[in-house]
Write a structure and sequence with these properties.
- With about 350 residues, the chain is α/β, with parallel strands linked by helices.
- The chain folds into two domains: about 20-65 and about 290-345, no CATH class; about 75-270, no CATH class.
- The protein has helices at about 1-20, 25-40, 45-70, 80-90, 105-115, 125, 130-135, 135-145, 160-170, 205-215, 245-265, 335-345, and strands at about 80, 95-100, 120, 150-155, 175, 190-195, 200-205, 220-225, 230-235, 290, 305-310, 320-325, 330.
- A seven-stranded mixed beta sheet has the order 1-9-8-2-5-3-4, sandwiched between helices. It has a four-stranded mixed beta sheet with strand order 10-13-12-11. It has a two-stranded antiparallel sheet with strand order 6-7.
- The radius of gyration is 21 Å and the shape is globular.
- The relative contact order is 0.14.
Length: about 350
């Protein structure tokens, strides 16, 4: 009860902070990307719904940060579906393939809590931030590593693949986030898989399916769906590589199936996916942002639904207007940006 009370208090504090920062530059930038990607991938959603979904999206991200504060002891919310999945894992180890959706760190907590041996494979840019972002969870991971039941592997290191093979063959589960952005947004698609997603074509890493084929172990798709006062773990039938199926074919069909699994839940709870503000990185460069020198027409305040503001502070401050319908980006003068910011965001 004490745990639930503390969780509720912290949640109320977070909601208050979010309201106070709705008009901050970081939120304005994020909303421009969020709304543009939502329009591109879920075009039937009315413009009027974008802002409310964005507020829920920010709250979901804050809940993820709140979750990990309670991952070194009793978790405050009820969890449904874990025993079913746990039984599957204990009957045959394999690859738990999940996404940055809902309470996405929960699977790591549950595996650590129940002392099930597993390895977590993350990208280099992610690994470097974990100590500061997830201290409570990292404390449990370090304890698990000391006891020989957990490994945190950097997917960017050449030795990681060899370590994965070794660990899986001695009974470790492997956890992979299929929507990780490592390698995405580059001009080369050599190491990426083209797949259909929400009626569009995206390019994503195919690491989970590739490893499943090479290791000949099953993939267990998994999502941790947030509901009122509880987390519901949702899965589907395990995916195994049939003998004789070429790796490229298996990787393509499996990656499509995994993202199809995700899209089923996005149709009902899009705000629970943390990748919306970076989804343009999964498009080919020529289908992503297109820089245009001049604005075709004067942008009036009534256009604020179809256009977004972006301020970049790296390499010198620059100002842009994003046409959310086609990813066209127009350079703005500072005063033009300030005028629109005051009209749209205050």
């Amino acid at each position: 009860m004490k745990c639930i009370k503390l969780y509720t208090e912290k949640l109320e504090h977070i909601k208050k902070q979010l309201k106070e920062t709705n008009g901050a530059v970081e939120s304005v930038n994020a909303y421009a990307y969020f709304s543009a990607n939502l329009k591109h991938f879920m075009p039937l959603l009315d413009w009027d719904r974008h802002w409310q979904l964005f507020l829920q999206f920010r709250e979901n991200n804050a809940l993820n940060a709140l979750d990990v504060l309670f991952m070194d002891g009793e978790f405050p919310l009820s969890i449904t579906g874990w025993e079913y999945l746990r039984a599957k894992l204990l009957s045959r180890h394999g690859i738990i393939c999940t996404f940055h959706f809902g309470a996405y760190q929960l699977i790591n907590y549950l595996l650590l809590r129940d002392k099930i041996k597993f390895a977590l494979l993350v990208g280099d840019e992610v690994r470097s931030t974990w100590d500061s972002r997830y201290p409570n969870l990292m404390k449990q991971m370090q304890l698990g590593e000391k006891e020989g039941r957990f490994k945190l592997l950097n997917a960017g290191e050449s030795a990681a693949l060899k370590e994965v093979f070794k660990l899986v063959h001695i009974g470790y589960q492997l956890v992979i986030y299929a929507d990780g952005l490592t390698g995405a947004g580059t001009a080369s698609t050599k190491n990426l898989v083209e797949t259909t997603f929400l009626g569009q074509h995206i390019y994503v890493p195919g690491g989970a399916a590739t490893l499943a084929h090479r290791l000949q172990c099953p993939i267990y798709p998994l999502l941790a769906l947030r509901k009122e006062g509880e987390i519901v773990l949702r899965t589907r039938d395990a995916i195994s590589a049939p003998v004789g199926v070429p790796r490229t074919d298996f990787v393509r069909t499996t990656t499509t199936a995994l993202f199809g699994f995700l899209s089923t839940f996005l149709m009902h709870a899009p705000q629970q996916w943390t990748v919306w503000t970076q989804l343009q990185r999964l498009l080919l460069p020529e289908r992503g942002f297109i820089y245009v020198d001049e604005i075709e027409n004067d942008i009036q305040s009534q256009d604020r639904q179809r256009y977004g503001l972006i301020r970049q502070d790296t390499g010198g401050r620059r100002y842009f207007l994003l046409d959310k319908r086609n990813y066209h980006i127009y350079m703005l003068k500072q005063q033009e940006y300030v005028n629109l910011f005051n009209q749209w965001c205050k």
